[in-house]
Design goal:
Blueprint lengths: L16 H7 L3 H10 L5 E2 L3 E2 L4 H14 L2 E6 L2 E6 L1 H7 L3 H12 L6 E2 L7
Antiparallel strand pairs: 1-4, 2-5, 3-4
Helix pairs in contact: 1-3, 2-5
Length: 120
């Protein structure tokens, strides 16, 4: 049995507006949030972005460190999900405002899933 690593996630009270906004300041990261906005946990291998795998990993780490996403490792696979309820509790309305603006301005539209679907 492989030991599962546990990524560090800030508690909702430790999440800062500046940290969350900085994490959402990149179009690739906004695209990842758009993809994860459906509420499903996704394997990292399902995520598609026009960047190298190491860069995608960096973007996912930035989102996790800010508290925007939660990462879980199971064996050699990593899974990620949006922390929608934590974000809404800490910063009411922020996530919906960011997602609405991103959709209207087509920010992050180049990010999708391996099956070809894109974020909201």
């Amino acid at each position: 049995m492989v030991a599962m690593k546990h990524a560090q996630h800030p508690d909702p009270g430790e999440m800062t507006l500046i940290g969350v906004m900085a994490a959402l300041s990149d179009p690739i990261r906004v695209g990842l949030v758009r993809v994860l906005a459906d509420g499903l946990e996704r394997g990292w291998g399902e995520l598609r972005a026009p960047v190298a795998k190491s860069t995608l990993s960096h973007h996912l780490r930035v989102l996790r460190d800010a508290g925007v996403t939660r990462t879980r490792q199971e064996g050699t696979r990593c899974f990620v999900e949006l922390r929608r309820s934590d974000l809404e509790a800490r910063f009411p309305g922020l996530l919906n405002a960011v997602l609405d603006a991103a959709i209207n301005d087509h920010v992050g539209a180049q990010v999708g899933l391996s099956d070809g679907s894109t974020g909201a």
